[in-house]
Design a protein that fits this description.
The complex is a heterodimer of chains A (165) and B (298). Chain A is of the alpha+beta class. Chain A is 33% helix and 13% strand. Chain B has eight helices and twelve strands. A twelve-stranded mixed β-sheet of chain B has the order 7-8-9-10-11-1-2-3-4-5-6-12. The longest helix of chain B has 23 residues, at 2-24. Classes of the chains: A alpha+beta (165), B alpha+beta (298). At the A-B interface, helix 2, helix 3, helix 4, strand 4 and strand 5 of A face strand 1, strand 2, strand 3, helix 3 and helix 4 of B.
């Protein structure tokens, strides 16, 4: 598992990683992924730590959240991971239904399901994706996946960036 | 009959003057609408981008500096759904130079690093094309900013509004948050132990007070197309700024990026070199892009 605890391991690839700090969005863009890679990528892009260990989850990849809880990476990707998302982050017109609780949806589907559109925004460190709701509110996709809108973005992006393979 | 001619002439003159008057008086909201609409009929364009970064490290026993520059060129053909970019990254201290290029054509992406070609087998060409379409993502940066017109200036002979953009907090925090950690990746000063904790939270107020993200854009008065954008981002961090218990140190990071757009509507052809056929195909995900450059463990 690559995490902050393994930060020292990054030292030997520091020049390369530093180089990557300046790459344009094209470098970080996703390309075709098989299912496992998509799940891993989704976990990392959501700001969490990906890990796989023979002793945990039968060796299958897990997505570790800031509160140390974890979920099977595929389950998180497929939106079947029981994360306690706060429905209040969505605008009033969001389609909250009992049949399809919010926490079973991915951030993308939450965005689109609320009438939002995904927008790619340039930054010098690579593009980010935000959800723009019809009422003018905007939520970052990582925080949306975490069940909130906004909040501490400082660490969210930095962690996913550091966690990138 | 003569009166009617005069009236028609007067109305025509008025109609001719209206767009100019509108443009001169455009406010920020109107500008956003005009900028958004300007991309509707966009077919082709080219761009150049230069990025410079310096990071100064100091504590009681060392003074160190990291400096790098990146030069980028790009071509985009939205009609043909193709694109190309070239990056030359130079570590100013070591002299190390990294060059690579990306091609997207006929739904396939190729990267060239040195003489090595990599072919990416992709399933979502629309997403890849969106990555190559730099203009749209930079325009989005303006759309999600508070804009104010600060003046006018000609870019390549074309009159432009100079626009100061203050991005929404999430964008600003993303830039600065990444800048903090990017600084640590090249740092001779070890990352504070506090960062190991998943519960650690950076102090927003203190960081905001010691940082600045400044965006300036030049938007054509005539076409409302983005002609130039400059992004300056700087941050100073220290134990007191981070509100952590650590031996005293200071890291000052500055990044400056400038992008110029042009050749709108001109002929843009993305031609793959024959050598590209001698490639290593990749079918894996984004992770593998990093591996292309040998930056990750096998």
């Amino acid at each position: 598992m690559k995490s902050f605890k393994n930060f020292k391991n990054f030292k030997r690839i520091l020049p390369g990683l530093t180089v990557l700090a300046f790459l344009s969005s094209g470098i970080l863009a996703a390309v075709a992924e098989d299912s496992a890679d998509q799940a891993r990528s989704y976990c990392v892009k959501s700001g969490y730590l990906y890990s796989s260990s023979p002793g945990i989850n039968g060796g299958q990849g897990i997505c570790v959240f800031p509160d140390k809880r974890w979920c099977d990476c595929q389950a998180f990707f497929q939106g079947t991971c029981s994360r306690n998302l706060n429905p209040n982050i969505l605008p009033g017109y969001a389609s909250e239904t009992e049949a399809e609780p919010m926490w079973t949806q991915s951030s993308e589907s939450m965005c689109r399901g609320s009438g939002g559109i995904l927008r790619t925004v340039h930054t010098p460190y690579g593009d980010i994706t935000i959800c723009a709701f019809p009422d003018g509110r905007t939520c970052d996709m990582k925080s949306l996946a975490e069940g909130r809108c906004g909040g501490d973005m400082w660490l969210t992006y930095a962690r996913s960036w550091l966690d990138a393979p | 009959m003569k009166d009617i001619s005069i009236i028609v002439a007067a109305i025509s003159l008025l109609l001719l003057c209206l767009p100019a008057a509108f443009a001169e008086d455009a406010n920020a909201d109107q500008l956003k609408q005009m900028i958004t609409a300007s991309a509707d009929n966009l077919t082709t364009y080219t761009y150049t981008r230069s990025t410079e970064t310096t990071i100064d490290y100091s504590n009681k026993s060392l003074q160190d500096k990291f400096s790098a520059a990146k030069a980028t060129e790009g071509k985009v053909n939205l009609t043909a759904q193709s694109g190309w970019w070239s990056n030359i990254l130079t570590n100013n201290a070591s002299g190390e130079v990294l060059t690579w290029q990306g091609y997207f054509s006929n739904g396939t992406e190729y990267w060239k690093e040195g003489d090595n070609w990599t072919k990416f087998i992709i399933e979502n060409p629309e997403e890849i094309m969106a990555d190559y379409d730099e203009l749209v993502s930079q325009m989005a940066l303006l759309i999600y900013s508070n804009l104010s017109i600060t003046g006018t200036e000609a870019v390549d002979g074309e009159d432009c509004y100079i626009i100061a953009a203050d991005p929404i907090p999430v964008i600003k925090e993303t830039i600065l948050g990444t800048q903090i950690y990017a600084a640590y990746l090249a740092s001779p000063i070890p990352m504070p132990d506090e960062f190991d904790s998943q519960n650690f939270s950076l102090d927003n107020t203190s960081i905001k007070a010691n940082s600045n993200v400044s965006i300036t854009a030049w938007v054509s008065k005539q076409t409302s197309l983005l002609r130039r954008m400059e992004i300056d981002s700087s941050i100073t961090i220290s134990p007191s700024i981070l509100k952590i218990e650590e031996q005293d140190f200071t890291i000052k990071s500055a990044l400056k990026e400038r992008t110029d757009y042009g050749n709108f509507g001109d002929t843009v052809q993305i031609v793959l070199a024959p050598e590209s056929q001698n490639n290593t195909p990749r079918t894996k995900g984004a992770d593998w892009r990093w591996a292309v450059f040998g930056l990750v463990e096998p």
